[in-house]
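TATA-box binding: structure, please.
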Amino acid sequence: MFNRKKYFLTIILVLTLALSNVVSGANYKNYEIEPLLAVAKKIQGDILGYSVLGYIKVQDLTYGDIVKIVREMGYTKEVTKENYYFEEGNKTVLVDWHIGKCYYKLVVNYGQEIQIVLSVDTGKEEDLTKIYDKIKGVLLPYSDNVHISTSIYQYLPKDLTTPEIVEKIYLSFKLLSAKLTLDYQGEGESYGFLGYSPYLVNTIESQGRKVNLHIAVYLDEYKGGYYLIIANPVIATSY
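Here you go.
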């Protein structure tokens, strides 16, 4: 599928900080997926796949609940002690598996509150809307406040220069009438741009500013090309 470098993941926003400050998120499918896909097509890079990540906080979650969640997502093996990790008195449950080209992961962190992250990474052949519906449907029985982050992964032609890539990113902002909130540079040739678009409903608040668009690019040193990620509201990871 696609390869996400660890050095790049260290510079993205932390999920539990970002998605805990959600402003709004109505009618996700009409106002989030379609604009993101439209922008991805305008950039004219090869779409590699998608990532959908759901996040909730709950007061109680039993072993039976964990088994039910992973069963509903297609996991067929047993959840055993190998799935449990303990650090500084806190317990974490991690279950991950593959079905076809889809990679599923459930992470449950037991601390002062219980945080649940359910994610699916998939190739471009899958239906992004169905993945969203599935994750939301599985998490809703445990919390009415389900936060979701969606990302589209693309590969850009290796002959593009850095200014040409940055131009594509600013074109994406223009297509969504988005205002740039923050930009940054990570290790090597990796760049990130965060902003707010009136066309995207699923919005968070960061440092007093609304954010619902996150575009990042990094160089694949082995293939010589660039990877581009377009996300709403931010690029998020479960680890």
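Notes: The first helix runs from residue 6 to 9.
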